[in-house]
Amino acid sequence: MINRRLRVVLAEDSVVLRDGMVELLGARGCEVAATAGTAPELLAAVAEHRPDVAVVDIRMPPTHTDEGIRAAVEIRERTPATGILVFSQHIETALAARLLAGGAAGIGYLLKERVARTSDLVDALHRVAAGGTALDPEVVTGLMRGGRRDRVDALTAREREVLELMAQGHSNRSIATRLVVSERAVEKHVAAVFTKFGLRATATDNRRVKAVLAYLGLGAD
């Protein structure tokens, strides 16, 4: 059970949706340190409050195109310890790739219509705050279409299933439950992925994140 209280900055230009999310997140044990309706307000709020996670809508005033993603990229550059969770009505594969190009650690991208429960959103916030990933399955599919297939050709069908669920942010235990296999079996598949991708264990590298980037065709050669 998750007990740590997360500090969140929420960027959403719809006042009704923003207020509703503040109430829902507060009821789930999150502290919404500030809200923002524009990208400049978001940047100022993150700089002031240094939250665990910034929840960002892609399309914000004034043009409602990519202001949110541009702000998210800037947040990553200025305060890399702040996680980013894009929460959008749209699948913007090119924009997601732009954000992930700087590294997938602490990055999430969820579609609003697919978050059926507030607990799903809060779980994603905690994964992102801890340096993990939380990518919507449709976003993963879209990124894979533009990725390099040769990176995954060496994987078995089961290993690809495991890696896709890793990209969505699932733990080994969660993957085991979804695939109806033992957690030990999942550990073996994950280890095989690391080996085939040439990802050696180090004191600082997050191999799960590196494997996800390679899977999506965004990792370094």
From TrEMBL:
Pfam families: GerE (PF00196), Response_reg (PF00072). The modification 4-aspartylphosphate is found at D57. The keyword Amino-acid biosynthesis does not apply. It comes from the Bacteria. Keywords: DNA-binding, Phosphoprotein, Transcription, Transcription regulation. Residues 7-127 form the Response regulatory domain. Residues 148-219 form the HTH luxR-type domain. InterPro entries: CheY-like_superfamily, NreC/VraR/RcsB-like_REC, Sig_transdc_resp-reg_receiver, Tscrpt_reg_LuxR_C, WalR-like. The keyword DNA-binding applies. This is Response regulator transcription factor. It comes from Streptomyces castrisilvae.
